Amino acid sequence: MRQLIVIGAPISIAFLINETAWSASAFLIGMISIGALAAHQITSQVAAILFIIPSGISMAANMRVAHAVGRSDGPGIKRAGLVAMLLGIVFATILTLVVIVARFKIAKFFLADEADATIGLATNLLLVGASCFIPSAMCSIALGSLRGLKDTRAPLLFAAMSQWLIGFSLSYVLGLNVGLGAIGIWIGLAMGTTVYAALLLLRFQLLASRRLFRPDI
Questions:
Q1: pLDDT tier for residue 217 given thresholds of 50, 70 and 90
Q2: pLDDT tens digit string along 108-153?
């Protein structure tokens, strides 16, 4: 029970930090206009649907890394994580291109009876949101790989730093202070997610390299 709590509690808190940061961004966008909030909701729904594939790869990476740890296979740990990340990048790139190409049809599907200005904002948000797909996929898969190594505390710290200190702060500044509106808020979220992905990837590389030379740790 102690091991479950020690490993699982940081995962739960990290989930809470991530979700509250993205939920708080909706309050910021709601301060701009109803149309901006509608466009934000569409982009969030599309991102949530497309996030299913990286989530599945993340679970597979978690198991493969954990199996490699169990058999003290240092090279296998690194190989399992990196192959999963490469697969996630491929799928995320394909989905990004699909959304970029079909963003006008997606916006009109949700906002068939809305004004052209709202549809235009939704297409722009989908374009900015598409830039989050690859970093989001990397975040999910790197988190799964780190969980296979029982590393959950450092990712919790990374989540707080990147999603709130960097992402939400930039969203507030760019969206409300600079005046970029909903697009600025999404740019801030994208930058926070990118920093999060980079930190998680570096963390996995560090721990996997340690296991490569010392498989017994």
A1: low
A2: 888 766 667 778 888 888 888 888 889 999 999 999 999 999 999 9
- Number of neighbouring beta carbons within 10 Å of residue 131: 18
Question: Which of these, 179, 175, 182, lies nearest to 120 by C-alpha position?
Answer: 182
| Axis-axis angle for helices 133-148, 52-70 (nearest 10) | 30
Residues above pLDDT 90, as percent of the chain: 59
Output 93-96 pairs: Cβ under 8 A, ≥24 positions apart.
93/134, 95/50, 95/53, 95/133, 96/130, 96/131, 96/133, 96/134
**Angle at Cα 210 formed by Cα 206 and Cα 212, nearest 5°?**
115
CB 156 within 8 A of CB 10: yes
> At 49, is the secondary structure helix, strand, or coil?
helix
Report the C-alpha gap between 75 and 72 in whole angstroms: 9
Beta-carbon neighbour count of residue 215 at 10 Å? Answer: 16
CA distance 49 to 136: 12
d(CA 41, CA 126): 10
Amino acid symbol at 159: A
In degrees, rounded to 5, the angle at the alpha carbon of residue 7 between the alpha carbons of residues 5 and 11 is 100
Distance CA 181, CA 146 (A): 35
Q: What is the pLDDT at residue 165?
A: 93
